[in-house]
Design brief:
By secondary structure, the chain is mainly β. 7% of the residues lie in helices and 52% in strands.
């Protein structure tokens, strides 16, 4: 039987570590006067946030990590970029990338945990002029590469057939950990854009993403009660034991002597 929803500290048998970092190897400096900025944040790390403007290499620290200790704890990343062309110039955000990871370990020998996460994203892209594009997306997957959540936006003034604004139907996902089980979740946030040509094209995009521990449900362990089908057997056993004790305390009267015949 499941225990009530857990709102407060994470149970002692469950460990949830959360990590977010900017991929400084693949994230690039802006080109041609474009502007870009970003930040990463974690409710339980020290420091709690880190940000940059312009060069991603200026972000320090470039990653944040700590355990999620209670419901409401969260971590995430934010990107923003924009640019507009001069006379026959190119402006470009060549790529911003952030990585997420969640590692969950159930050290209990008897309890199963169901853990619910909620993802909050605010995603927007915009282009203007003859030749500009921007895309901004986030994808969260389990160890088998099943997608648990996504937001995927793209705008392209030269190829409008590429335009899209797609989000997961559900803004939350749940994970079930049996006793002794561990799970790993990963996420990738990306942003890129550019404007080219005649001096009248521009692009902009912004994406704020946060992953929040919302609920923990436990079952098994001390929360188990007898199943309904086992109750009649338990009652029979109890009544049988009580009857046996009563027999020992009050033995039956001896049999009456046989009637003697008259001589």
């Amino acid at each position: 039987m499941s225990a009530p929803l857990h709102a407060g500290p994470v149970p002692s048998g469950l460990s949830i570590s959360a990590w977010v970092g900017l991929d400084t190897g693949n994230s690039k400096d802006p080109v041609g006067g474009a502007s870009q900025s970003g930040s990463i944040f974690h409710s339980n790390s020290s420091p709690g946030s880190s940000s940059f403007s312009g060069s991603p290499a200026s972000l320090s620290p470039s990653s944040l990590s700590a355990n999620l200790l209670q419901t409401g704890d969260s971590f995430g990343a934010s990107f923003s970029m924009s640019g507009s062309t001069g006379n026959f110039t190119t402006v470009q955000t060549d790529g911003l990338f952030a990585d997420f990871s969640l590692n969950l370990v159930n050290s209990s020998l008897s309890e199963t945990f169901t853990v619910l996460f909620r993802v909050d994203t605010r995603n927007a892209v915009n282009v203007d002029g003859r030749d500009a594009f921007a895309f901004s997306d986030l994808s969260i997957k389990d160890a088998d590469l099943n997608e648990l959540y996504y937001t995927d936006y793209q705008a392209d003034s030269l190829n409008p057939g590429n335009n899209r604004a797609e989000n997961s139907l559900d803004d939350s996902f749940s994970l079930i950990l049996a006793p002794g089980q561990s799970l790993a979740i990963s996420g990738l946030q990306r942003q890129r854009g550019g404007a080219f040509g005649d001096g009248s094209s521009s692009y902009s995009a912004s994406l704020f993403s946060t992953i929040l521990l919302e609920e923990v449900r436990s079952s098994g362990g001390n929360n188990q009660i007898p199943l309904p089908g086992s109750l009649p057997l338990a009652l029979i056993a109890l009544l049988g034991g009580a009857w046996a004790l009563q027999r020992r305390a009050h033995p039956a009267s001896p049999l009456a002597p046989p009637v003697q015949e008259r001589s």
